[in-house]
Amino acid sequence: MTPAEFVARFRIDPAPIYVPQGDEEMVFRAAHAARIPLSLKGPTGCGKTRFVAAMAHALDLPLVTVSCHEDLTAADLVGRFLFVDNQTVWHDGPLTLAVRHGGICYLDEIVEARKDTTVVIHSLTDDRRTLYIDATGEVVRAHDDFMVVLSYNPGYQSIVKDLKPSTRQRFAGLDFGHPDRATETAIIMRESGLDEDGAQRLAAIGAQVRALHGYGLDDCASTRLLVHAARLIASGLPPTLACETALTSILTDAADSARAVRDIVALHIGDLAPAAAPAGASP
């Protein structure tokens, strides 16, 4: 893949919608300028991935995203030989492409990957900024614009799934959480087109449902789920049914917990009128 092909394939366009929660944009720009890798931690659905995409667009950098899992191997990141047209040809993996051509390599949910796989990034996240490709013997010096960003959800960590100190201490860190009420209202409005009153009610539901976490509810109402509910309402679905579909049925299978979520929804959204269905939608 040529540099031009790489940029064309992995450029982020148009600009993702992202509402800042604090100084995270300033920190990201500084980390990129200083060539310091960055780790993002926070609950699922709080905007970590969207933030990385927004910053890639803002900095005009290609973004290569790797969704980590327990079967991810070093070869999946670095590359491998493939048999093409009766020839054995080396193909760069996503990490190598970003190292070679310059861009952000985003390792999403890094703790899901095997520890022997994540070790491959060590030489790229210190002063060496070098990738060693054992299969070819090549030593790739990182492009000036190369940056490693990883994310994980500390709420799902365990002794088995955790970042090794030797990995963690190579990164600067940003902590993400659920937005405050005003910010979440703004996010819901921008993402869904729902009016301010409806968005405020959904943000209030999110705040109260999160208070149930650990008290019979094992998962939190993420901003993503609130946006899903808002989009369903904006599409003409009755608000209570939209919340049942996007929140209650997703957050829990337990009858008592589901009842508690429904009570919160009824308190805040019971009298909200459905939005007008989009033109052409079925009645």
Individual helix count: 12
**Average pLDDT rating:** 88
In the sheet with the most strands, the strands line up as 2-5-8-1-9
- Percent strand equals 15-25%
How many individual β-strands? Answer: 9
Task: Write down the secondary-structure element order.
Answer: HHEHEHEEHEHEEEHEHHHHH
C-alpha termini separation? 49 Å
What would you report as the Rg, rounded to the nearest angstrom? 22 Å
Shape: elongated
Contiguous low-pLDDT stretches (5 residues minimum) are 279-283
Detailed description of the structure:
This protein has 283 residues and is of the alpha/beta class. The chain has 12 helices and 9 strands. The chain has helices spanning 3-10, 24-34, 48-58, 74-78, 94-101, 115-118, 165-168, 181-192, 196-210, 223-234, 239-251, 255-269; strands at residues 38-41, 63-67, 79-84, 87-92, 104-108, 130-133, 138-141, 147-152, 172-175. The strands form 3 sheets. A 5-stranded parallel β-sheet has the order 2-5-8-1-9. Helix 9 (196-210) packs antiparallel against helix 10 (223-234), helix 9 packs antiparallel against helix 12 and helix 10 (223-234) runs antiparallel to helix 11 (239-251). The radius of gyration is 22 Å and the shape is elongated. The protein starts with a helix and ends in a 14-residue tail after the last helix. 40% of the residues are buried.
